Amino acid sequence: MSSPSTTSSPALSERSAKHWFEQEVHPHGGQLKSWLSGSFPGVRSEVDDVVQESYLKIWKRQAVQPIASAKAFLFIAARNIAIDWLRRGRRSPIDLYADPDLGRAVVDDAPNAIEILSMHERYQLLVQAVAALPPRCREVVLWHKFRGLSQREVATKLQISERTVEVHVRNAVRHCETFLRGQGVCSLRD
């Protein structure tokens, strides 16, 4: 049979371990979080997890062998855990679960070869449509739509009224749309 002192001993050691943790380890938590955030920017969002893992590591170590300096052990453990987290992050830097929009952001929006060829063909059709415009109408459209001059600037440059510029632009746009539809292009944006 076991003596009463033996049965109460584990309860006392658990109580003393808890007291040790509350007195020697837990008070450094805020400072540890601050230090981790400043020293390891890559784990800022995981600082609480790194601290908890550090607490677990020091708790397990203290159960096996007494720790001379809880603060030093805690900071070293946290540093090692943060470095491990960063290493894991380098191997797999994308966490699609953390940010579901990230997958969409990674997709390359640059046009592929087929899209470039298609844009080039549409551009050539647009050039043909503009070339088919009457000379004065073509001149107005080139200054306004392709060189970016305002209707007022085109009117001044060509010494015609703004209303005439407006009519030429509207007629040119209609002509180009009709020409492009005839070529099977519904819109320059399609």
From TrEMBL:
The keyword Lipid metabolism does not apply. It comes from the Bacteria. InterPro entries: RNA_pol_sigma-70-like, RNA_pol_sigma-70_dom, RNA_pol_sigma70_r2, RNA_pol_sigma70_r4_t2, RNA_pol_sigma_r2, RNA_pol_sigma_r3/r4-like, Tscrpt_reg_LuxR_C, WH-like_DNA-bd_sf. Signal peptide: none annotated. The keyword Transcription regulation applies. Residues 130-188 form the HTH luxR-type domain. Keywords: Sigma factor, Transcription, Transcription regulation. PANTHER family: RNA POLYMERASE ECF-TYPE SIGMA FACTO, RNA POLYMERASE SIGMA FACTOR FECI-RELATED. Belongs to the sigma-70 factor family. ECF subfamily. This is RNA polymerase sigma factor. It comes from Actomonas aquatica.
